[in-house]
Known about the structure:
The protein is of the alpha/beta class. It folds into two domains: 194 residues, 3-Layer(aba) Sandwich (Rossmann fold), CATH 3.40.50.2000; 170 residues, Glycogen Phosphorylase B (Rossmann fold, 3-Layer(aba) Sandwich), CATH 3.40.50.2000. The protein is built from 17 helices and twelve strands. A six-stranded parallel sheet has the order 2-1-3-4-5-6, with helices on both faces. Strands 9-8-7-10-11-12 form a six-stranded parallel sheet, with helices on both faces. Helix 1 packs across helix 17 and helix 2 crosses helix 3. The chain is globular and about 65 Å long. It starts with a strand and ends with a helix. The model has no long low-confidence stretch (mean pLDDT 87).
Amino acid sequence: xxxxxxxxxxxxxxxxxxxxxxxxxxxxxxxxxxxxxxxxxxxxxxxxxxxxxxxxxxxxxxxxxxxxxxxxxxxxxxxxxxxxxxxxxxxxxxxxxxxxxxxxxxxxxxxxxxxxxxxxxxxxxxxxxxxxxxxxxxxxxxxxxxxxxxxxxxxxxxxxxxxxxxxxxxxxxxxxxxxxxxxxxxxxxxxxxxxxxxxxxxxxxxxxxxxxxxxxxxxxxxxxxxxxxxxxxxxxxxxxxxxxxxxxxxxxxxxxxxxxxxxxxxxxxxxxxxxxxxxxxxxxxxxxxxxxxxxxxxxxxxxxxxxxxxxxxxxxxxxxxxxxxxxxxxxxxxxxxxxxxxxxxxxxxxxxxxxxxxxxxxxxxxxxxxxxxxxxxxxx
Length: 380
């Protein structure tokens, strides 16, 4: 009997969906080495024009016109507007990734897991209208702490979600509660581990005994990261930071030029570009300053770290921010000028770090990927 085959779909518009897919795939392989796990980018089944436009328009909008993105997100989340726009949107989505149908016929997976809403319309259509040809169960992993109507289609066997509030949001959109399981957002299994703090700091060239702040701006290095770094270092001589610039080479060069003087740097800053070892950098830190992406938030919670949140993207990241504040693991900054004060408030003597770290540990689900994998392998 050939090994079972599971297809894990994502979309390369925002790194979080891809990271969640990889986390699920790794967990599936770890639980059953005989599995054939295929990870595929939904956009590879679209036209070149659509693929480039889809990614570029999203990245450009959230960077240059976040207010417009927030407006569109809120408008499409309105149930009345959603009912009007859903039929043409689903038709467009199905046409955009129509080559996926041939791929599914050829690969014949035993189950399909999607961490992005883009392929759901086509997958639902195939499952509902051609069950003999496409008999596989369909699972959906929602990668934020909210459920936009774009995630809701017929034919999904089970939703895996971050928190109870997402269960309630889906119920309001007529998704039966028995189809929804709170697993947490899947992160790489490495985030379930805790490394030695002093060793992690020494590894990046920092003092081993100073409070350390990890500053990140997402995979493309968005946000006012340079200003944040300056304010962390100015918060007091005892504080040091790791700055992760992502693929923003210009930002990285700017920081290197600013802090290349050894006397000014004083071993208090480590500058990195795009990294694949965020889990190890988090081992060095006591506090994270970042946007509130679903995966970044989940990784930070999994490590039991508090967050300071600056410039969340209107829409899904604002919902993520609200969740972090509600559970006591995050503080939203009104402006970059607050950074130093809030760093001292959390990490200073008699600060809030202990309570916020405990809240993060309570809300974190570092084994979410393993839970999703186990439920997928158990079947519908």
